[in-house]
Amino acid sequence: MFAKSSIWKLALAWVVTVLVVAAAASMLTSAQTTVDKKVVSGNDLGFRIDSERGGVPTGRFVVRMNGNWVEVKESVAASRVTQ
Fold first, then answer.
1. Which of 5, 29, 35, 50 reaches 20 to 30 Å from 13, CA-CA?
2. Domain containing residue 58
3. Which residues 6+ apart lie within 8 Å of 64 measured at CB?
């Protein structure tokens, strides 16, 4: 049916096609996750956008201190739920 050389050519074409599709997919996903680190803010409270996942911005809460945006560190405290 097929000659050995045509099978090798077909296999090589398939490998090249898979590599091209993988490279294109990699470029598309990296383009979606690289967003400038901008701050969406009010006067002193903001949200620094680090990346985007499926159209949803992801990032960190920041506060303005002395004109600079500083990342918020969360503190955990135990409190009584019932009185």
1. 29
2. 4-71
3. 41, 43, 44, 45, 46, 70
